[in-house]
């Protein structure tokens, strides 16, 4: 499938996730050799997707493997499913809406719903609640990541953690994700802020490694800040910022 030159730049997310067809992958790799912006974008999407998937994943119950193995002999195998030939479609036209959300959905399904079949009878309600919360988080994050105008910036906090902010003017939302963020300690929490004309407005809490959609509108904000605050958060920063990351233009 051939793309116009302007479409090629939209394939960075699919390339980072291994979602391109072989011919498309070869064409895009040839493009990468001459496009520094796409090389950086592909690397950022790969790192961001990995951290987001890890952040929302949940380990299966400890006894799930033992129960699954014990039940294998009594489970009838289904015949193989042969998918119908896919209809031709414009890959570039649907990429931004589906590529990254589908990859994250797969990670969430593997982590959150691991062992559902075995544990559903006794823990169905708990699993349903966990899946619903994960799906809500996934939907909110995916809406920002899949936005055609999504922009990504990376930074490092004062205590060594890696941070990523993805912002969409169209969605009027921003997503923050952190990796290797040390535990805040008893009675403390990390708080996010949006900088507006020199004023820091509260934008949500994060306990450690994870991903959150910032509360409040990033429109007009110049930066995202991160501080260490008392549990429950503060109306204004009480400590020096661990991170002050300029929002992507």
Description:
It is built from seven helices and eight strands; from the N terminus they run H-H-H-H-H-H-H-E-E-E-E-E-E-E-E. With 249 residues, it is α+β, with helices and mostly antiparallel strands. The strands form two sheets. A four-stranded antiparallel β-sheet has the order 1-2-3-6, with helices on one face. Strands 5-4-7-8 form a four-stranded antiparallel β-sheet, with no helix packed on it. Strand 4 and strand 5 form a beta hairpin. The chain is globular, with a radius of gyration of 21 Å.
Task: State mean pLDDT (0 to 100 scale).
Answer: 75
Q: What portion of residues belong to β-strands? A: 15-25%
Spatial strand order of the main sheet:
1-2-3-6
Give the overall silhouette. globular
Secondary-structure class: alpha+beta
Number of helices: 7
Low-confidence stretches are 1-6, 87-99, 107-113
Classify the helix fraction into a percent range: 40-55%
Please compute the radius of gyration using only Cα atoms.
21 Å
Q: What is the ordering of alpha helices and beta strands? A: HHHHHHHEEEEEEEE
Q: How widely separated are the two ends? A: 32 Å
SSE topology:
Layout: H1 5-8, H2 12-16, H3 22-32, H4 36-56, H5 64-71, H6 91-112, H7 116-145, E1 151-156, E2 162-168, E3 173-179, E4 188-196, E5 199-206, E6 210-213, E7 223-230, E8 243-246
Antiparallel strand pairs: 1-2, 2-3, 3-6, 4-5, 4-7, 7-8
Helix pairs in contact: 4-6, 6-7
